[in-house]
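Why run this: before we spend reagent on co-expression, it is cheaper to look at a predicted model of the complex and decide which construct boundaries make sense. The entries below are exactly what would go into the expression plan.
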Amino acid sequence: MELILPFLIGILFSASLYLILHRHFFKLILGLILFGLATNLFLFVIGRLTRGGSAIIGQDERVATEPFADPVPQALLLTAIVIGFGIQAFAIVLIKRVYQSFGTTDLDDMNTTDQIEEKH
Amino acid sequence: MFLAILAGFLLAFAAPMLYRWLGKWVYVPMALLPLSIFIYLLTLAPAVLGGNNLGEVQQWAPSLNINLHFFLDGLSLLFALLITGFGTLIMIYAGGYLKGHPLLGRFYLYLTLFMTAMLGLVLAGNIISLFIFWELTSISSYLLIGFGHDKETSRSSALQALLVTGLGGLALMAGLILVGMAGETYTLSELLERGHVVTQHALYLPALVLILLGAFTKSAQFPFHFWLPNAMAAPTPVSAYLHSATMVKAGVYLLARLTPVMGGTDEWQYTLMLIGGITTILGALLATQHVDLKAILAYTTISALGLLVTMTGIGTAPALEAMVVFLLAHALYKGTFFLVAGNVDHATGTRDLTQLTGLSGSMRFTAIAALLAGMSMAGLLPFFGFIGKELVYEATLEESPFRWMLFAVSFFSGMVFVAVAIAIGYGVFWRRAVKATPLQHPDKAMLYLPPVILASTGLVFGLLPGFFVTPLLRRAAEAMLGVEQVFELALWHGFNLVLGLSLLTVALGYVVYRFSNRLLSYANRFNGIYRLGPANLYQLSLKGFLAGATKITAAIQNGYLRSYIAAIITAHIALIVLSLWKDGPRLELTNRLQELSQLRMYEVVLLLMIVPALIFLFKSRSRLTSIAVMGIIGYSMALFYILFGAPDVAATQLLIETLTVVIFVLILHKLPAFRYLSHASERYKYVLLSLAFGAMMTYVILIVKQYPLDSQLKAYYGENSYLLGQGRNIVNVILVDFRALDTLGEIVVLAVAAIGILAMLKLRMQKGDKP
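The model came back. Tokens follow.
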């Protein structure tokens, strides 16, 4: 598994980036969500995998005994997942508003504020 | 000296307030400042004239060895006295010239700022602080030229002056740093003694080119001369002070200052003589092609600056003596002339030479000042200008391969100077006219006193050259030569070749004056040449620069999100590949292959769920299916977390995934159907980029996992979670106890996102709002 997961993460990153590079707003959001998932998995795998031991101290113990999973990446992940959800929810509502207001979900139709005028 | 500079800056910024309190009397405190500095400098003068250089060190950041050095020798003293003395008169004059102007306070701010910066420039004892003051003069000059900012020409002239001198300033900074590297010190007094080291250094030539660029732009030397006539858009006091007497001489000052450090080489000598010579001739020639008083004065100023540069380039003792004498003489008579031109403009409303006659009756004192200055400019006895011109002729006629060429240059400019002097000093005021130009405002004391004082100074210096002037100029020349000089100024040298040539200059100058109308009629014929001139080149490059900047901005900031992202990702990949390529660790996979055998069945099942789901995601044309597929991927992730000992993460992932799907379904059912919007050709590019990115991330993880993880955090939290945090679930304890503040921050982020969502949902487009 240690050897397979990096490849899985690479596939997830590729897929998500490809979705992000689409012109369609909806695909962009799908890409963002997928990118978040890939990043979370990346963090988790970088922090080393532990089989058969969670980061919980047993009922009759006072300190954790090996093997137990590294709690630091898990704490990071929890935070990342929740904040990622905030961004997703915001993006989903944003796409709805954009479609209501402009009648389009094509990102190329929404670039006027970012372009300089060629002639004054 | 430090206090003088500080007081200048303080008073400058107090000027607008003082104007509000004092009204038209604001000129009193503004003039008192340069006057008191002038007097203070005079008290220092005896020591300097005795041959002692004064230094002063103001500790700034002593731990970094950055100090404010001030340095006063003959050369600095000459300039400092010129700046403050002239400054006093200008402050008074400006009070009269811009009387009642609503922005007079601001004008005084700029003017005092400039004066202080200029004073700092000539007193600086460190080439870095010299550069800073140099830039300050450029900026204050920009503000002063653009003072009449409601006019288009003022603005563009100001910008032009700033761009040209600012460009030179940048070059100068680089040059000074190179000099500092070559001489291994940035302190002026130390640098002055290491000239032989600097000139032998490999960095000498680049440093020289850069410094000359700075000096030439500032002192309006060919081919950068064009900004100076345009700078005449400034109010006349500014033209007189900055663009004739002081700021444009900063370049000359720099050359003079660095003569002991960088001078004496062939490159130095020939460049200065060549550029100075061309500028002298060009300025004189162009001066005959104009009728605007200030334009004529501007071009003769260019010519005079060229002559000063030429003299510096010759570099012999007589040439440097001539240089300092001519510099002082020029400042006196040209300053006077500018003030006179301002008076005429103020009183009659025109500066056109052809329309001005017979003003001596109505503007008596201005006329006298003009006459005195004219005689000094023409180099007549017994004026200071006469001594200057004699010395210039003597210096050019010294034995050298270029003696006749140099003499021709100075003779030509001398001739034009005579013609201009007659035209302004005599023609405008004293020539008998049928009908004198009528006055709109009477001449005022505040306006005519400063030029009268300046012009009479020229006379006094001419009559009494031995008194104060000679020792001062001698020390100034010594500062450039680096050795003691015996140097006598005398009005009368007896009948000799130089006197004869002087007389010839005056005679020919008179001829030029008589035929000036004829010369003017040729003006149009040069238009073709002007089109190729540097002024036009400047306009073209400015336009090209703006167009280029627009193009680049349009290319970089094109508004397409995916090209931004592609750029970020590409840079990311490039940086990582670069750092891993060079001496990064090599990937060793062979001995890790046996890890594959530990693969469990249920892990394979999960993989078999995710990969086909991804493929399905790309195939799907329906929004609802893709949302469902995303849900599958998310849940599979959660299962992974459970398998590897992270039940809390898995629980959160499950919850969030469910919520996301619910929100999606609630909101997105109103959206239009899926479409492929990108072109097939573009897609290939992005597929490649995505694959490269994924491959890189895989590679990074594999590399990282080759090494053991060295973290003490796991052990720490494992030991202390229950003992300190009283909790058995370590992850929970970290979140709510050890790192509780971070969790608070996370909650705040969620709250902000919620507020944003609420605002978006409540937002209603107003009528007329454009998408």
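Chain A is about 60% helix and 0% strand. Chain A touches chain B through 92 residues (CB under 8 Å). Bring this page to Monday's planning discussion.
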